[in-house]
Every structure is written in C-alpha cells, then in structure tokens.
Amino acid sequence: MIITLVGVFLSLSPRFIQPLQSLASRIVGPIANRVQRLQERDVSWSVERFLTDYESTFRRLLSNRRNMLLAFFSNGGDWSCSLVLLWGILAALGRVPSVWIVVIAMAVGEIVEMIPIPIPGMLGVYETSITATLVAFKIPGPVSASAAVLLRLITSVFDIPSTGYAAYRYGYQVLTNLSKSS
pTM for this structure? Predict the structure, then answer.
C-alpha cells in the first residue's frame, strides 16, 4: 500500500519526479548505450545465446542433485509461504478457512496462471481464479477478492525487486562478457 501511495503521490506531483528521472537516466543511460552498440553490431547473438545459456544451465541443474534439491525446496518454500500468506490474509479479514481450502485455491490459481494467455503478469486472471475458488467454498465474494488482491500486492512487493535484480545481474554479466569478447 505504501508503494501504491508513493506512486500516486509522485504521479500527482511532477516536480518530485524530475530528480528521480535524472537519476534513472544516469543509471540506465550507460547500459542502454552499451546495449544499443551491441545491437547495431549483431542482433542474432541474443536469441542464440539465450537458448544456449538456458540449455546449459538446465543441464547443469539436472546433473547436480544438490542444485535439484535446492531448486525443489526453494520452489516448495515459495509455494508454502504463499499458502501461509493467503491463509493469514483470510484470517485477518475475519474468515478462517480450512488449510485445504487455501491449498486448493492456490493450486487452481497456479494452474490457471500457467495457461499461456497474453496478459502481462496474468494480472487479474490469477486473482479471479483464486477468488472464484474461494467463493466456491462459501467464502464471501468481497472477502475472497480482497484476499486475492492483497496476496498479489504483497507478493509483488517482494518479487519485483528480487527478479529485477536478478535480471540486471544476468543482463550485466552477458553485456560484460560480450564487450570483452569483441
């Protein structure tokens, strides 16, 4: 909620955005220039290199049991945290459902989220599936919808910075390796 309020405040007060804009351009500018130079030189490297990196990384993951277990438990931990979070949100909203109802709602939400629908981040689809599942288990619609939206907001607060950092690190590493090889 704080991030949303800050976003609304900044969008209503453009004079506060100017320093942020210049800071962002100073940070992103050199990276954008490097990417542009690499793209002018050769564009074909990106798809081929990505597929090669993906395949080699996946093969390394499968060949190392420790990494496989780590990935499995990491994914299981993420899912478990989402379950506990949804159950806690519903409890805070005055409805304490069975843990199995929350497990089923999250499973339906995850399955629907995997359907390749061209909607960025499956915004709205995931929430609707969780809401519909909770309503099917006799949890009132407003409570179900509020819980689903709050779950999305809370998980996005943690997901966006961590995935953004990972994408930045990977992208920076690729750009550094490419500039060294040329």
Answer: 0.59
